[in-house]
Amino acid sequence: MEHRIPRFTLEGVKDADVSVHPFSTEDELGLKLTRFRRDGHDGDVVLLVHGLTSSSDIFVMPEIRNMASFLLDNGFGDVWALDFRMSSHFPYDVETRDDSLDDIALYDHPAALAEIRRHVGADRRIHVIAHCLGSLSFTMALFAGTTGPIASLVCNSVALTPRVPRWSRLKLAFGATVFEYLMGLPYIDPRFHHAPPLTRRWLFARAVSLFHPECREPACHMQSFMWGSGRPAMYVHANLARETHTHERLADLNGASGVHYYRHIRKMVAAGRAVRRDPGDPRHAALPDDYLSRARGVDTPILLLTGDRNRVFTDSNIVMHRLLEKAAPGRHELQVLPAYGHIDPIIGKNAHADVYPLIIDFLSVRRAEMAAAAQGRGAGSEHVDAVVVGSGFGGSVAAYRLAEAGLSVVVLERGRAYAPGDFARTPAQMSRAFWDPAAGLYGMFDVWGFRAFDSVVASGLGGGSLIYANVLLRKDERWFVREHPLPGGGYENWPVTRADLDPHYDEVERMMGATPYPFHLPAYAGTEKTHAMQDAAAELGLEWRLPPLAVSFAPEPGAEPAIGVPITTPAYGSLHGDARRLTCRLCGECDIGCNDGAKNSLDHTYLSAAVHHGADVRTLHEVRAIRPRPRGGYEVDYVVYAPEAGEGARAARSGPRRAWARCARSGASAWCSPRAPTAPPTCCCATAPRSRG
């Protein structure tokens, strides 16, 4: 049979050193880890854990921007993918074994972590992202104390409170017995469709497909039967790439499942929580009978993910979060993903825009908190030289110059980071691209209503530069007036002249790559709007000129403009990692976010330069208050955003946190909104750097 995408391929992860690390468990099974490392990275480690029927393949799929690559591109340069005993890379799922999730919690995960620590050292922080029964079993191991210290844990679909639809409960009750004793099989395989005609496997696959008219892929039908109740059950069809939703590819990604695991899941579903399968088994004596009983003692922050169309484990993680909130209020978080199901938060074609950034934000916050704690500052009260509120034109310039001057700088931006390709385009994406945390919306567009007009402002890393039209005009020198009478009395008086500001204008234009539209070149001479403006100016007798635009028409300064060619990364690098930027393609989408990266927005310029000089830029952080301290400096209170489930959802992922700074610079909101934090009107630093743009 033809495989359009090679089975078990690693081609989905580019520009990384790849190594495979086999290891053995205490109960004598051979497993493996695959390591993806970039540029000798020696920071935090991320471990990826698959679920039942799948493998590490779901994290490295070449047909999408996969999770392993996304982590590498966003500052987590040491990623390990585990294949444990549930993996389709091994034959264990189709053998007559009787493993349980207790075995995985006791043997597989501790052995994998020991192997990682053998290579990276015991002092490296390890974050874990786990899916399905990999998530359930890893959480069991964490709560049982078999993992050692874990910096943070992300659980997709289910953790310690498995809940399933009614039809699934019926299948759990009788499925294992039916398959083992009536069909003589210890497993169910999505490839049963290709069994010899008229065999029990072939007939069963045909029977299952009769109840799934929603598509023509037999593997999709069988996986829905194996693990859920829906048409389909595992995902939302529209969320998969066309190359993914084929029979062969689906069967590769989610293979045969041993039915013996169903017995343990059935017991947990009946109990409403993770429990040992056989409390009398002496091999598992070190494990708790009830894993949730140790919830208060687990200090690892957990991010619980679930799609709002999860037809496999329904509201399992919502219930889990509710229980954890009672045991440890504010420690753990919940993200309900609109229009997502069970596995598409991992393998979906747009997961890199809808889901992965939420994970990156969670890991980044935890990394920063632990780094602060390691330096003796404490996670809840950091001490820095300067806190910059907002990352628009005012905030980004301040962050860069303060960091360049050697100060410790933290930038707090309420919105997300948007790399090229992350901006919403489809109707479904645009419907969620608005900023309203109370409604669980964390998109870029924030619509403000005033008495006489409305305004759309940006909520994202780079502020208004993400959605403005790129025009950089210098203020007319005739406007720099002194003692100029105002209507109704009073005077307008500018303390500076245009000549005072010209050196700073020069510097900003250089940083922003300002250049006129190359109208004189054949490739650009046919733009009708430019011709129309030229004709209108001539008819009105007005001067016509091309203003400076913060757009890359050429791959580097001084080069010949060309359409859609790669842009050379500046010496200060990019905070988006290796995300590729292309010169302007004349698509006219500047005001809704440039997915080519041709727009020289502040994230590509001042903020990347600030990060290069050591600034700590944090997204989804909104400042609530700034107060001067009696002995100098400022206290800055902020919250960290994340969507929550249910009506009246909370907008903050935790209670207010606090930073102490010698300087507090508010660069939030061009409208000086009443929603902006209470703040001093200026930036005051004991060691202020030279003032320039």
Describe this structure in words.
The protein folds into 2 domains: 1-379, Rossmann fold, CATH 3.40.50; 381-471 and 550-666, FAD/NAD(P)-binding domain, CATH 3.50.50.60. Helix content is 27%, strand content 17%. It contains 17 helices and 24 strands. The strands form 7 sheets. It has an 8-stranded mixed beta sheet, sandwiched between helices. It has a 6-stranded mixed beta sheet with strand order 21-12-11-24-23-22, with helices on both faces. β13 (435-436) and β14 (441-442) form a beta hairpin. α2 crosses α3, α4 packs antiparallel against α8 (260-271) and α5 packs across α6. The longest helix has 20 residues, at 101-120. It is globular, with a radius of gyration of 28 Å.
Rg over CA atoms, rounded to whole Å, is: 28 Å
CATH class of the largest domain reads: Alpha Beta
Query: What name goes with the CATH superfamily of the largest domain?
Result: Alpha/Beta hydrolase fold, catalytic domain
Q: Structural class, please?
A: alpha/beta
The overall pLDDT average reads 88
Write out the strand line-up for the largest beta sheet, numbering strands in chain order: 1-2-4-3-5-6-9-10
β-strand percent reads: 15-25%
Can you count the helices?
Answer: 17
CATH topological fold name of the largest domain: Rossmann fold
The separation of the N and C termini measures 62 Å
Q: What is the CATH architecture annotation of the largest domain?
A: 3-Layer(aba) Sandwich
